[in-house]
Amino acid sequence: MIPPRKTRTIHVRDLPIGGSAPIAVQSMAATQTKNLEATARQLQLIHAAGADIIRVAVDSKEDVAALAKLRAGTNARLSVDLQENYRLAELVAPHVDKVRYNPGHLHHHEKHKSIEEKVAYLVDVAVKNACAIRIGINAGSIAPEYDARFPDDHVSAIVACAIDHCALVDKLGFSDYLVSIKDSDPRLVVEANTRFAAERPDVPIHLGVTEAGMPPEGIIKTRIAFEQLLSRGIGDTLRVSLTLPFDDKGREIAVGRELVKDIEEGRFRSVPPNFFDGLNIISCPSCSRVENDRFIELAEDVKRLTAYAKQHKLTIAVMGCRVNGPGETDDADLGLWCGPNFVNLKRGEAELGAYRYDEILPRLREELDKLVAARG
Asked: pLDDT over 90 for what percent of the chain?
């Protein structure tokens, strides 16, 4: 049930992606990279689960030093997520097989340089270190110029950004790249990737529903997107992003392979017409950016606490870090994003304050009660 794909084939070290190559399944370490023991265990668990690629995030030179040591201890194919500091690329590229940059974060540093100059730097680093590149567009962190051009149309903004960055990389003569366009809403993921694939059928695509949340809802959201896209021949590699305890991260690989197998063999699952009608909890899968290990416990507590409002059409976003948290909670009715010692609470785009972990749940309940009461 997966038709032949039209994309070109690229390579992440010895792994072909795109064209007639098997669909690659990957995951991401959920621990802080600088925590060597915990992250080494993550790499071991995810690699043992059969991951084709494992992504690790770096946000500081301390993370870079840790990554070098982690590289020495594993033969897994590694991808690095540059986060907001693209200048770390030249330090981490010698230790990885793929570099992921987010166009929405390139404006944070060296504002005197153009986006074209920054992309040229990243491509030069990739060439010198035989790395592939992922252009990773995220609906929660749209580059400012595209947000300005399409203020009320996220899909057009992220698709235009993807197409433009492909053109920048093409102009530099680099072809070992792929694109990801992600959102927490599987319907937007389907629309955006379908539109991008129609414009650039040659570019391999990495599929994912970001912040899909906890099982089983997170798996259902991901399945919705993957069934719609893979059955159209769209998607060359994928990740299932689930909020899971650290020792269970290998489950992302098992679920990813199960979804691909089901779609290949025509086993599709119907989605109830009211699936999106009630309470929608968005939560990120955790990564090295999360500064407090209680985040996963918090996400689970939020799910339990808010069960009484499950019939109300509300969105609650629980995010683990300062990188994606502020922007990716803007569209939620209530949003939480975590720092090392506090959880920031928002109602829409309005900041309500920062609370200790032992204070946040009663405060969240208070705001949720207000929203429920207002909606009758």
From this structure: 79
What sign does the dihedral 184-190-195-198 (CA atoms) show? positive
Q: Are 181 and 246 members of one domain? A: yes
Looking at residue 121, the DSSP 8-state letter turns out to be: H
List the domain range (segments joined by +) for residue 293.
280-374
Both 234 and 285 in one domain: the answer is no
189, two tokens: 């993921």
Q: Rounded to two decimals, what is the model's pTM?
A: 0.85
Give 56's strand partners: 80
**CA dihedral over 15, 132, 165, 107, signed as positive or negative:** positive
Nearest to 238 by CA among 251, 250, 222: 222
Do 129 and 174 belong to one domain?
yes
CATH number, domain containing residue 150: 3.20.20.20
**What tokens were used for 245?**
């305890």
Measured CA angle at 227 (ends 224, 231), to 5 deg: 155
Q: Which two tokens stand for residue 353?
A: 């304050």
In a domain, 226, yes or no: yes
Strands 315-319 and 334-338 turn out to be parallel
How far is 320 from 315, CA to CA, in rounded Å? 16
**157, burial (CB in 10 Å: exposed 0-12, middle 13-18, buried 19+):** buried
CATH number of the domain that 347 lies in?
Answer: 3.30.413.10
Domain boundary among 222, 240, 264: 264
- Quick one: 318 and 252 in the same domain? no
pLDDT, one tens digit per residue, over 49-75 is 999 999 999 988 999 999 999 999 999
User: Phi and psi of 17, rounded to 5°?
Assistant: -130, 130
**Alpha carbons 342 and 339: distance in angstroms, whole number:** 5
